[in-house]
Design goal:
Largest interface: A-B, 30 and 33 residues
Number of strands of chain B: 3
CATH architecture of chain B: Orthogonal Bundle
Oligomer: heterodimer
Largest sheet of chain B: 3 strands, antiparallel
Helix content of chain B: 55-70%
Distance between the termini of chain A: 59 Å
Order of helices and strands of chain B: HEHHEEHH
CATH class of chain B: Mainly Alpha
CATH superfamily of chain B: Winged helix-like DNA-binding domain superfamily/Winged helix DNA-binding domain
Strand content of chain A: under 5%
Radius of gyration of chain A: 24 Å
Strand content of chain B: 5-15%
């Protein structure tokens, strides 16, 4: 860890550390790279918070397109001289290509952290709001974990709807069960159709079919 | 020097040192001059050049003088002292306004 101060730095960052699911060194390193590429000017403290947190929050307040623009400008910087418009990079530069690929991959993570910074910037002053609103926002930005959470929430809302409908005798139980089962069946069928091409045999069969129809 | 000017200079210091670190660590090369001095085309880019020269004088970065035949771009690279400074900064949190202090500027700290 001593040799990699950037990992220590990023892990200590408050909005980033709230995203507990992002912890792998490669992700942390990619995040550092994109942070330095997009906000290199703001690595100092302005008041209580780091200046780049404020900058990210400002960008999110203006709209995510602002961060997109920043990204476009910085990628251009890696390839061209902004003053003379001269192309300075070496052709076939694999390291640069690798860096740019990593930056693009980490861009989504940066947007999530920027959004969290925005919420933290707005509510972080209040301890109660920090432990409720900001932590919930962090949970929302935690990716797949939040997807499970939304599914559980949807199931609970559905359950509540069924209970109320049953309590007031609004719909017969059989109708509700039929609607639910058909909905689930359609969902499973569509998901399976999307996922089947992952299997090589099925993919080949589909490709053959595609070729036959395109002739 | 006004507070705004001080902040501007700190920003330029941060930018040059961190981008030089990124280029050195992950691309294995020095920072092109246009990134160091004329990062964005703004009317006060002369100030950026002054600040870059100041960092060179403080031996945090060094002009490489390497000219590529195709582009004629001069680069600036991070010195060992500069590398150590950036690493300390990252390990300790954020860039303090050390570069503003007189002691640092005269190379005493």
């Amino acid at each position: 860890m001593e040799d990699r101060p950037e990992l220590t730095f990023v892990r200590k960052l408050r909005p980033f550390s709230l995203l507990s699911v992002v912890n792998r060194p490669c992700e942390v390193e990619s995040f550092f790279k994109i942070l330095v590429t997009l906000y290199p000017d703001w690595f100092f403290k302005r008041g209580a918070v780091p200046a780049f947190i404020e900058e990210m929050a400002n960008d999110v307040a203006k709209g995510f397109v602002e961060i997109d623009r920043r990204m476009a400008r910085r990628l251009g910087m890696l390839y061209y001289d902004v003053v003379t418009k001269e192309e300075w990079w070496k052709k076939g530069d694999e390291r640069l290509a690798k860096l740019v690929t990593e930056l693009i991959c980490a861009f989504n993570l940066l947007k999530r952290v920027a959004y969290l910074s925005y919420i933290w910037w707005l509510y972080g002053f209040n301890r109660l709001a920090y432990h409720t609103v900001v932590r919930h926002a962090a949970f929302r930005e935690s990716g797949w974990f939040y997807r499970i959470y939304t599914h559980v929430m949807a199931a609970m809302v559905g359950h509540a709807f069924f209970t109320i409908a049953q309590a007031f005798n609004l719909i017969p139980f059989e109708t509700l069960a039929t609607i639910t089962l058909s909905w689930v069946a359609v969902f499973i069928a569509l998901t399976a159709a999307e996922d089947l091409p992952k299997y090589p045999r099925i993919r080949k069969a589909l490709m053959r079919k595609l070729k036959r129809t395109s002739r | 020097m006004s507070k705004l000017d001080k902040e501007k200079r700190t920003r330029v210091d941060c930018r040059i040192l961190l981008l030089a670190y990124l280029f050195k660590e992950y691309l294995g090369r020095d920072l092109p001059n246009h990134v160091a001095a004329n990062y964005e085309t703004t009317p006060d880019y002369k100030t950026y050049e002054d600040e870059r020269d100041q960092l060179i004088w403080m031996q945090l970065i060094k002009p490489d003088g390497e000219k590529r035949k195709d582009t004629k771009v001069v680069t600036v690279g991070l010195t060992d002292k500069g590398l150590e400074h950036v690493k300390n900064m990252l390990a300790g949190g954020l860039m303090k306004t050390t570069l503003e202090s007189k002691a640092w500027r005269t190379g005493l700290s």
